[in-house]
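task queued by scheduler; priority normal; single chain, no ligands, no partner chains; default sampling; output format set to structure tokens
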Amino acid sequence: MNITTKPFGTGPDGEDVNLYTFKNANGVEVSITNYGGAITSIMTPNRNGVFGDVVLGYETLDEYIKNPRYLGALIGRFANRIDGGKFSLNGVEYQLAQNNGANHLHGGVKGFDKRVWQGTLTESGLHLEYFSPDGEENYPGNLSVAVDYSLNDENELRIDYHATTDKDTIINLTNHSYFNLGGQGHGTILDHELTVRAESWIPVREDLIPYGEIHLVRDTPMDFIRTHTIGARLDELIPEISFSQGYDHTLSLGGRDGTVRWVARLRDPVAGRVMEVFTTQPGIQLYSGNFLDGSLIGKGGVRYEKYAAVCLETQHFPDSPNQPNYPSTVLRVGEVYNESTIYKFLTA
């Protein structure tokens, strides 16, 4: 593995920020910064062997700081939304930041995506560590977090998450990369073909908070068991799609047994690039870039318009701390949080 490090700027509090780039034997190249653990680029070949960058991002650290839209970032302590920013644990009610209307989103005002992580190179990639003190964003417990990014010669980008706490807390970590397999800046993802191993999904209110129910995908636009293009059914105006003008929903993944299993396949029929997703997580947030509005200027001066990319965020379900019938997101003293996700890049 060819791994390089270069300075990427200075963080908001004077921290040194680096950009780490690793390339495998096939020429696939991944760049990650320790500011928010953000994946800044992924270079993969199309069916003709031409390499292109398949994730949205910025060219400078200042842009990541000034325009925080979670591009490629690590999300925590709790990815997705929590109703009213409130949850109870061990008889104590906690009030988190209400940074998404009345609700809590992606760890709060200064979540893990806005923190400078300690980075160490490994033989196959990057090891990141962050210590989140008790009370940070009003979450309980001193939380020690480690995330390992690795790339192998099978073109698999693997993300391993680990955490421990000294006080019972909640946790839900994910990566928020925006993918366009045609290449960032090359059209929308509405014609990307998607397959997801999910027989059920999480219906939500207008503010995208779950009712607490789990519904079957059958006979709904949430059914990707059979392959569909992402844009094929956006005009089937079930309330959940009309709320967000596209997909921003959690699909409940089958086959969870604690091991990494295949859960999704994304394909751009024009470029011929394919991305397969494997994970230990119980859910995947399908977000079709509905809230991109052209206000962000990304790499190469590209303006990121609506549907410019799709996120496939492996994670637990939104508002899980308030939904007893969802898989638990409580991390207790003495336990170790372990989750893994693989994004594998192919051509077809």
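post-processing summary
- The first helix runs from residue 61 to 66.
- The radius of gyration is 19 Å.
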